[in-house]
Each structure stands twice: as C-alpha cells, then as structure tokens.
Amino acid sequence: MATQKQGEFILEAERSRTKPPPLYKVLLLNDDFTPMDFVIVVLQKFFGMDRERATRVMLQVHREGMGVCGVFPKDVAATKVELVVSFARQHQHPLACVMEEN
Ligand code: TYC
User: Fold this and answer.
1) Among residues of the chain, what percentage have pLDDT more than 90?
2) Which of 9, 52, 65, 66 reaches 20 to 30 Å from 98, CA-CA?
3) Best residue among 34, 49, 84 to mutate for probing ligand 1, ranked by most atoms within 8 Å of CB
4) Domain range summary for the chain, segments of one domain joined by +
5) 20-101, which class in CATH?
C-alpha cells in the first residue's frame, strides 16, 4: 500500500518506521518576585486550568523550583512560551517560561 506525503508516494512499511514528532513540555520556573496570583492567572489564561489546579501547579513551582504547565507539539509549545513571557513582561514581572523535549 502507498500513501502520498508531500507530493511523494512512500511505502506503508517505511511510514511505520518514521518516528512520531516529539512533544514538548512547557515549564514555569520559580522566582522571588512574580506574585503568586499572577502565576495563577497565567495558568488559567494560557493553559486552561481551573483556579484550584492552577493554584496547585503554582505552589509546586514555588516549592520545587519548576513545574509542568502542559505537553504540546513543538509549535504550540513555542507559541505558549512566547505568549506567557510577553504577558509577564507587559506586567513587569520576571516570570520565566521555557520548553523542553518530553
Ligand atoms: N515565588 C513567587 C513568590 O513567592 C511565586 C512564584 C510561583 C513565582 C511560581 C514564579 O513560576 C512561579 N511570589
């Protein structure tokens, strides 16, 4: 059986050997200055968490130094990092958000 991919026909056997694209974790890092309530808002606004879950993740970051906001395809993770960092800078907070291959 053959499948069309980017204008080329490839064998099914070859397709099954192709690795699925990697996923990326989006991480928040702790700092001493960003207010806890601001971090909770970020987790709700950009990661769809309810207030209870956002509070738990924020406290984990606060106590352990970092925490996972979610796992996404590369382009989605990169966009979330940009949006979070830009939102934090607009509010003059040093909040750090990074992505890492899962
Ligand atoms: N440590 C911050 C404080 O005490 C709160 C905080 C939590 C900051 C999580 C960043 O990613 C963070 N105000």
Assistant:
1) 80
2) 52
3) 34
4) 20-101
5) alpha beta
